[in-house]
C-alpha cells in the first residue's frame, strides 16, 4: 500500500488552490473543442479537444487531457494514450516538443506569447492521440484535497485506466479503434502495467470493452538497476571513460552499488565516472551542455528551473496594462540550444490567453511548470516493469521498444539486455532499418511480437532529436508495416 504523505497547506496555496477555490472547483468531467490557440495564426487545421476527467471522487482529483484526432481520419485510425516521463512532467512536453501537431517557433522570447507552428512529423498524422497530464499534480492536473496528490506508480496507473474507461464511455465512437498505450522515459515503468490492467479487464469482460492491441515505450526506465549500471559500459563504449576506470568499476561495483555504493573503491570510481560524464550532455552525448535545463536520469526528471516548489506569477504594471509575468522565470539557454523550446513553453503555458483557450479551471493552478523537482509526493512502488512486458506480450499483444542511440540516461545497452532476458526466440534478426535509402537505426523482432529499435542520432527522448526518423518508425509499426 502506498504510504500517505500529507502536504503543508502552503503547497496548495502556492499552486493557486485557496480554501474557497478548493470547494468551488468543479468535480464533474468536462471537455471543450479548441479551435484557436495563442501564438498560432488562424484556425487550427486539426481537431483538438481538451478537458478533465475525475479519477478520485473522494479527494476530487482530476487529470487534464489534450485529445488530437488523427489527420488520417479518426474513424479507422489507431488510438494512442500518450504519457510523459517524470514522474511529474507535463504531457505538454510530448504534445509540443516531441510528437504532437504543433511546436514552438524557436525565436528570441520578446515578452509576448511564443509563436506556434505545425509539426511536419506529428504522430497524429496516422493516429488519434490522447495526451494526459499524469499523475495528479503534473501539468494542469490537480486535486481539491491534499490527499489526492498522494499517489505512486500503481495508484496513478489505476487512475489512468479509470480515465480511459470514462473517456471512452463519453466518446463511444472510438471504442472500436485499435488501442495502444505509449510513453517515454519514466513512463516506461507505467505503460506495460497499464496494458496488463487493461488486458485483465478485457479478459474479465469489463464494460466498455477497450480494444487493446499493444503498447510502445521509448528510452524506457524499468525500475531495475540495469537502468543505472548500463550507463557505465555505454560511457566506456563511446569513449567517455577509460579502460582502467571501466575495469575498476566492474571489479568493485555490483548490483545496487551503482545507485548506493557499499564500498569506498566503488564510490570513488563512480564519482570519477560521474565527473567525466558531466562533461557531455547525458540526454544526447554529442550536444553541448548549454545550460538552462537538465534531467536527473531514469528516475525523476526535472528542470533546473523547477526550484524547490512551484513558483508563482506576479502582476506588474506596464503603462496602462497589467502583465502577468513569471516571478522567477526559468534560466534562458542560448537560442541555438535544443532546450530553448522548453524555455518558451513556460511563457506559453502560463499565458492567461492559453489558459482560457485550453479551458483550464480557474483557481486550480497558479503556475504551470514542466517538471516538478520532488516537491510533490510520489511512491515508486513498481520496482520492476519487466514482468509486465513479459506478461502482456506473452498474451499476444504487440510491443515496440525503442531507444535513441546517443542517450546516456537510459542507454540502449540496458534496454537491449532486458528485452533479450525475456527469453523469446528471434523471428527477424538484427538488421538496419532505413529512411530515404539510409540506415535510420537498427532493429530486431521476437516471437512475442516485441520489436526493439534504435534511432540513429537520437537522445533522451528520441523524438526531440530525430523527429523524422521517429515518425517513420512509429507510423510503420502502428500500421503493421515492416520497420
Unreliable stretches (pLDDT < 50, length at least 5) are 1-27, 294-298, 300-323
Average of per-residue pLDDT values: 88
| Strand count | 18
Instruction: Bin the strand percentage.
Output: 15-25%
Largest sheet, in brief, is: 12 strands, mixed
Radius of gyration: 22 Å
Helix count, per DSSP?
15
Look at the helices and sheets and give the structural class: alpha/beta
| Shape annotation | globular
Helix proportion: 25-40%
Q: How far apart lie the N and C ends?
A: 41 Å
Structural write-up:
- This protein is α/β, with parallel strands linked by helices and 483 residues long.
- It has 15 helices and 18 strands.
- The chain has helices spanning 9-14, 19-24, 92-97, 153-170, 187-204, 226-229, 231-237, 243-252, 264-277, 340-349, 352-358, 386-394, 412-421, 462-465, 467-478, and strands at residues 30-34, 48-56, 61-68, 79-83, 102-104, 116-118, 128-132, 142-143, 151-152, 179-184, 212-218, 313-318, 321-326, 378-379, 398-404, 426-435, 438-446, 450-455.
- The strands form 4 sheets. Strands 1, 2, 3, 4, 7, 8, 10, 11, 15, 16, 17 and 18 form a 12-stranded mixed β-sheet that branches. Strands 5-6 form a two-stranded antiparallel ribbon. The chain has a two-stranded parallel sheet with strand order 9-14.
- β12 (313-318) and β13 (321-326) form a beta hairpin.
